[in-house]
Design goal:
Methyltransferase, Cobalt-precorrin-4 Transmethylase, Domain 2, 273 residues, globular, Cobalt-precorrin-4 Transmethylase, domain 1, alpha/beta, 5-stranded parallel beta sheet, 7 helices, 23% helix
Length: 273
């Protein structure tokens, strides 16, 4: 059995309980060595085989898994953040499907969540933005047509840009071609939740300059949007005069379904992610 596990953004205590348990039980761990905090491996058994996938090809990763399966040994494939975001797991799952090897996925805390925690902000602020775009700049890995930064920036919504810290001059130019201005708030979060985490607040117009001064060229997430400005309307959901399925608002004759900040109905018992 193969378990794809999200390691979280960096801090070893931000892995899920399930992920930590699977690491303790693993016969083999193949981890993303360039990004995963190796402190997470300290909980592995002494006889656990540990491989660094940064030094391996896809074929070598699958070969190591095949060998473990032949020996009836369990593999944890440890990916940074959440495996579903830029984890390159689809190609691995395709290979495992072809070989008839079973697998499952344990989600993890993504770096965009760790970055928001570092900045102490909310991406979806009433009256400011109700949409978060997760994307990356085109580089050696292209992006599909229609997903260029300037096309996505035309929405003016909250944005978290992955894998682009080494291309900030180009990123800045692309953002300014969209709905953002030079004064739009921005932030660079280097190694969110790691001991050497660094937070730089700036604007879209000073993005590249700020990173250059601090010599940040990799392992940083770029946040862009007015959600960083500290403004926003109060949520209607918690207003005293607002009725929900759980409480009756003041000055209202009848209860009505709870609504989110955007006015969309929330069913009784429904939670927001």
């Amino acid at each position: 059995m193969v378990h794809f596990v999200g390691a979280g953004p960096g801090a070893p205590d931000l892995i899920t309980l399930r992920g930590a348990r699977l690491l303790r039980e693993a016969d083999q761990v193949i981890y993303t060595g360039s990004l995963v905090n190796t402190e997470l491996l300290s909980g592995c058994r002494a006889d656990c085989r540990i491989l660094n996938s940064a030094e391996m090809t896809l074929e070598e990763v699958i070969g190591a898994i095949e060998q473990a399966e032949a020996e009836e040994r369990m593999t944890v494939r440890l990916h940074t953040g959440d495996p579903s975001l830029y984890g390159a797991i689809r190609e691995q799952m395709n290979s495992l499907d072809a070989l008839g090897i079973a697998y499952d996925i344990t989600p993890g805390v993504s770096s965009f969540c760790g970055a928001a925690a570092a900045v102490q902000t909310e991406y979806t602020v009433p009256g400011i933005s109700q949409t978060l775009i997760l994307t990356r700049m085109a580089g050696r890995t292209p992006v599909p047509e229609g997903e260029s930064i300037h096309a996505l920036a035309s929405h003016g919504s909250s944005m978290a840009v992955f894998l682009s810290a080494g291309m900030l001059a180009g990123l800045q130019e692309e953002l300014l071609r969209g709905a953002y201005t030079a004064d739009t708030p921005a932030a660079l979060v280097y190694k969110a939740s790691w001991p050497d985490e660094k937070l730089l607040r700036c604007t879209v117009g000073t993005l590249a300059e700020s990173a250059e001064k601090e010599r940040i060229t990799r392992t940083a997430l770029v946040l862009v949007g007015d959600f960083l400005g500290g403004r926003g309307a109060r949520s209607r959901l918690y207003a005293p005069d607002f009725s929900t399925g759980f409480r009756k608002g003041t000055g209202e004759g009848e209860q009505r379904p709870a609504t989110g900040e955007s006015g969309s109905a929330l069913r009784e018992g429904e939670t927001r992610s």
